[in-house]
């Protein structure tokens, strides 16, 4: 990929395009047929784009220290003025085709000042982009959270040539994912950071999809322990000395710590969506067992990227007093992204980045909104009534039905609760 083309793609992803009509991905559906916690909350939502620079970071590709610039999309409870501008989100598909999506937030609206709100760090996969789960950012902000989604450098659609050099940024991703997540939390702790006054940085959660989930597990205590065989398979290393050096580089914990790691006490919940790495046993089993942060996993039982057995292994070995596993049956890996934009529907590679063969993506997104809100309300805001949405029977059909209109799972309407199962261990926060 030429420098000029790369610059053009990055510009398309970061700047508004007033010439291209914004696309609405979510046609209206009756609220009575949706999970109850997927409905918008009491707050209007503002969104702003900003940069955060993590200085003097080691870059594996260049083998030198560089400033690492993260582009953030931040959603927050807002006060909307009469001249408010509706938010749109610009990005590119894996093949580099630009698109523009219509959001439900308001661009650069004034933040609600009367309260401070918990912080949620939202982390995409490889490759992806910061607005891949904008539906989740907007939803949580409407219920009283500040959600900061980041573009992970060397890991976005705009930067990676998915045809000619699809794994160009993969080592960077392995090394930086948890470091990036931890840095976002630390960035908002700075008194001069935007929205500092409205963010409770002592109360935070991390949500990660695929490689973002790989990072999230590490961020809350699932330390990396890369086997030599996995290093060789993932990087192509055949030199034992090089393999050992890569193990030393990658085996870190909780945002890049390498010895006597301490989990940041602000992390009070994590959601790992289709997390990658369990199938390769990249995490220390003993570190997983010592985890204390409540964690939720979402997995497709037909996932051929992260492998369902690998995700079940992660759940089984997690020692968190509160842990949950939502399984989407007959789903593959794409259980986090927004629906495919129209431009992606003409190319198999682009469409495959969003499509699920057996599920409606809009339905999955609504279920994700429901369970994410239940998880964060229960474990960050300590709302005991919300914890009831996490203590479920293995399947909806095995749960107690309280009315003909309701499912055996609280919050789900009857007849609209199929295709899922649940595992959990719950300790009251």
TrEMBL record:
Instruction: From the UniProt annotation, give the residues forming the signal peptide.
Output: 1-21
TM annotation in the entry: none
Report if keyword Hydrolase is assigned: yes
Residue stretches making up the Serine aminopeptidase S33 domain: 287-335
Q: Which GO terms describe its molecular function?
A: hydrolase activity
Give the InterPro entries listed for this entry. Answer: AB_hydrolase_fold, Hydrolase_4
Q: Which Pfam family would be a valid example here?
A: Hydrolase_4
**What species does this protein belong to?**
Alkalimonas delamerensis
Name-wise, this protein is: Alpha/beta hydrolase
Q: Which UniProt keywords apply?
A: Hydrolase, Lipid degradation, Lipid metabolism, Signal
Q: Does the keyword Mitochondrion apply?
A: no
């Amino acid at each position: 990929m030429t420098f000029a083309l790369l610059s053009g793609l990055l510009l398309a992803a970061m700047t508004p395009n007033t010439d291209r009509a914004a696309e609405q991905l979510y046609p209206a559906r009756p609220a009575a047929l949706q999970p109850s916690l997927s409905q918008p909350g009491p707050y209007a939502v503002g969104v702003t784009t900003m940069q955060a620079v993590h200085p003097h970071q080691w870059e594996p590709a260049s083998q030198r220290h560089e400033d690492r610039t993260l582009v953030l999309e931040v959603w927050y409870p807002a006060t909307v003025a009469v001249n408010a501008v509706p938010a749109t989100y610009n990005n590119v598909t894996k093949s580099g085709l630009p698109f523009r999506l219509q959001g439900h937030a308001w661009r650069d609206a004034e933040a609600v000042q009367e309260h401070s709100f918990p912080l949620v760090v939202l982390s995409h996969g490889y490759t992806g982009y910061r607005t891949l789960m904008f539906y989740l950012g907007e939803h949580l902000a409407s219920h009283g959270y500040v959600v900061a989604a980041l573009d992970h450098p060397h890991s976005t659609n705009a930067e990676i040539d998915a045809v000619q050099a699809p794994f160009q940024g993969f080592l960077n991703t392995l090394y930086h994912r948890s470091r990036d997540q931890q840095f976002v939390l630390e960035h908002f702790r700075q008194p001069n950071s935007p929205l500092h006054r409205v963010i409770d940085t002592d109360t935070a959660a991390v949500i990660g999809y695929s490689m973002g989930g790989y990072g999230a597990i590490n961020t809350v205590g699932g330390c990396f322990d890369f086997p030599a065989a996995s290093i060789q398979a993932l990087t192509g290393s055949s030199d034992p000395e090089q393999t050992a050096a890569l193990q030393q580089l990658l085996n870190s914990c909780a945002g890049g710590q390498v010895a006597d790691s301490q989990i940041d006490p602000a992390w009070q919940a994590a959601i790992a969506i289709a997390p990658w790495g369990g199938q390769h046993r990249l995490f220390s089993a003993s570190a997983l067992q010592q985890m204390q942060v409540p964690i939720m996993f979402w997995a497709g039982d037909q996932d051929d990227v992260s492998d369902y057995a690998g995700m079940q292994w992660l759940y089984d070995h997690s020692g968190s007093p509160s842990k949950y596993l939502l399984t989407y049956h007959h789903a593959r890996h794409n259980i986090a992204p927004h629906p495919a934009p129209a431009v992606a529907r003409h190319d198999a590679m682009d469409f495959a980045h969003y499509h699920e063969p057996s599920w409606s993506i809009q339905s999955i997104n609504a279920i994700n909104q429901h369970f994410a809100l239940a998880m964060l309300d229960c474990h960050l805001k300590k709302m005991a009534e919300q914890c009831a949405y996490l203590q479920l029977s293995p399947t909806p059909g095995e749960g107690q039905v309280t009315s003909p209109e309701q499912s055996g799972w609280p919050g789900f309407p009857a007849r609209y609760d199929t295709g899922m199962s649940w595992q959990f261990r719950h300790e009251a926060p």
